[in-house]
Queue: 2 jobs
Job 1
Amino acid sequence: MTKTYDAIVLGAGYFGLRIAQNLRESGKARVLVLEAEDTAMQRASYVNQARVHNGYHYPRSILTAFRSRISSDRFISENQAAIKKDFEHVYAIAKSLSKTNARQFEEFCNRIGAPLSESPNEIGKQFSPRLIEKTWLAQEFAFDSNILRELVMSQISKLGGIEIRFATKVAKVSQSAGGTKVTTEGGEEFEAPIVISSLYAGTNELHLASGLALLPIQYEVAEMALVQMPTEWKDRAITVMDGPFFSLVPFPSENLHTFSHVRYTPQVRWEDKDDSEISKLSKRDLDSFKSTFREMKADLVRYIPSLSGVTYVKSIREIKTVLAKVDLSDSRPVLVRGDFGIPGYYCVLGGKIDNIYDVVEELHEQLGL
Ligand SMILES: Cc1cc2nc3c(=O)[nH]c(=O)nc-3n(C[C@H](O)[C@H](O)[C@H](O)COP(=O)(O)OP(=O)(O)OC[C@H]3O[C@@H](n4cnc5c(N)ncnc54)[C@H](O)[C@@H]3O)c2cc1C
């Protein structure tokens, strides 16, 4: 028997949960969320760098940088308990291979109103003067994904009216008399006039099985090496911009730092150009990739010799999913497509956690809520 709801959300990542919450707050009485994993926010919403982007990262996309500045303030004030602020964030510009120089970076931060101050000498002198042009202290924080999940789950439970089914993989969506029918791998059927797909890396696999067009997505298997910092660096994050460099950012949910490198973190890259490229990599497939920690560390100590004490703990990996053709600008536009092959079927994709505000605003507009 097909169960009916006012709205169905596919995927219980941060986006799916917040969209379900929003639909409920907008008056949808019965909302269903379907999630393949055993709990919420286990995939990209957990496996990420945990950076609350504050604009600095996007000197080649002023629009993304501006939006980041606005969304970041809101995200921080709404999720205080999940925000880690008690560390210094050191940004640095490399002397060669960087797409932006120190003067341009300062001008850019000034333009978007992102605070940047001279870094104290004790920090600056740790960086190789041969390789680094300049260092600053920036104001950019990190989020604890576990606390974020607790916050959103508690808001959802207070609201009532939202049912979440875990360990339920969606196999197909199709048009039905009541809107969109959702069929699970286990053969259950659900139906609603509004169905919103928020499956991140899983979107095109569902579209292929459902005979829908594929989204223009590009993927990379990304490794986040989780590391222990030497004591004197424990309360610092480091981001070297803007090219084949690296970042070390606190990962509050495990009390470690993520270590990533533009050259080594993407372990494979591909686009869904045809059916053969659909990303069906399981968590186990992802874990079979070899860590590039050694290569990353070899490069790190060239730039910051005093970080030779960074120690590897483990790696977490996810399929990073961005809209095709954003490579040049490194921008993070959001995608919200309504009536996508089926009336009332919507797909969303956000490039960073705080894109949720843009996604919800756009959904409201398209749904007329
Ligand atoms: C390596 C990496 C680093 C990043 N760093 C940052 C950062 O520092 N700051 C930042 O703001 N953003 C960062 N991001 C981006 C951010 O993590 C994502 O934009 C955000 O988590 C997307 O949330 P989501 O809910 O759409 O995706 P997810 O959290 O992946 O949720 C999608 C859900 O759909 C479920 N699902 C998939 N297919 C099916 C199916 N067929 N049936 C049922 N359920 C299904 C999945 O299990 C998953 O729970 C990073 C991403 C990656 C991968």
Note: The chain has a mean pLDDT of 94.
Job 2
Amino acid sequence: MQLRWSHAVVYVRDMELMLDFYSQVLGFEITDRGPLGPSGGPEIVFLSQVATDHHQLAFLNTRQDDQASNSVNHFAFRVDSLGDVRQMITLLQTDGRADKLNPLTHGNAWSIYCNDPEGNGLEVFCDTPWHVQQPQARPWDTTLSDEALLNWTRETFEKEPGFADLSDFYQTRKAQLDTRKPDA
Ligand SMILES: [Fe+2]
């Protein structure tokens, strides 16, 4: 058995605000919505942007408190390229509803962190070409060219433990997983 990440369900205060942000800025589509129970109850709205998961996120409009989100550190979404991360930074800046925008690299990822309109931590990242032992975090300069950022990232992390090509890391992990005993 292998558990693969599928979705999170989140309590929200302002459903329309959250739906607008997650659809207009992050690109999710609403896949279903309706009352939670057969005889009514709070509304749940499902969102996804992949064919393989009916929902990657679902919002339940039952949040009453006005506190910051206090159990979730962040949700993270992988994109295909550094260009996509840069595009997301522009989208978030233009939209203006997410705050605490924070470009960080963990050596193995270039990320933009922020808080969504209700204070949930959010990360959008792409892989770098490398693995490096975690945790690691350094701010990255979004004004650097792709090539300059690539060079800076390698120079910054290549002396750190575990630094390796990402494909080597995947191979090592696959070998480790393959040695796990199959289910009885
Ligand atoms: Fe993360």
Note: Helices lie at 15-25, 82-95, 146-157, 166-178.
